[in-house]
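Final report, Chapter 2: Outcomes

The project's central promise was a pipeline that accepts a single protein chain and returns its three-dimensional structure in a standardized token representation, suitable for archiving and comparison. That pipeline is now operational. To close this chapter, we reproduce one record exactly as it appears in the project archive, with the input sequence first and the structure output second.
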Amino acid sequence: MHKTTAKRILLAALIAAVVVWGVLNHKKFEVDAMVAWIAGYGMLAPLIFLVTRSLGAVFFVPGSLMSITAGVAFGPVWGAVYNLIASTIGAVLAFLVARYLASDYVRKKLGGTGWIQKSIEGVEAEGWRFVAFVRLVPLFPYNALNYVLGLTRIKISHFTAASFVCMIPGDIAYVYIGYAGRETMAGNSASIEIALIALGLLAAIVFLPRLVRYFRGEKPDQNIAQDSTG
């Protein structure tokens, strides 16, 4: 069997399994419900979160919601570790779907945003550096970006490495926000300080695009910003 054909069959089987899983568990995507659901698995909770977070990326479950859930369920350190691993796996799954299984569908669904051509041109010009840039800039939605970058010619190893490293700042910020919310609701005496740290981290990732563009010697691209907020 041809190697590419085998990949497509495996991916098709994965997607079929994910569809069934999504139908059965679509009501578990609220933070409180998901935390309770994950916690119910005890020692297996980290594994359940990893699977849920990874597959959630394929079905456009908001990444920020999943990151906050990690902070609530596992705290700031392990929550960030689990979330980063899972968000990277999810990014790769969506990337592979777009590259090998549903490129035409992705172009049809996302083509009107202007992302595809900008991404292709950016990857052609800068390779992994473009991926690093758009991962650092929170104006670019995580889920859609995974699919769009799958339509480019970037190597999967470059995509994976750049995504993993450059998603760290946003990952830490959102996970810590979830942790801060948990501690506040629990009446922790240090909840004010924890909340201030969370706000500071969030402000940092909001400011990060300006800093990155400054060092790149670029002016903000208003068109991209408009496209990415959809």
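Archive annotation: The first helix runs from residue 3 to 25.
This record, like all others produced under the grant, will remain available to the consortium after the project formally closes.
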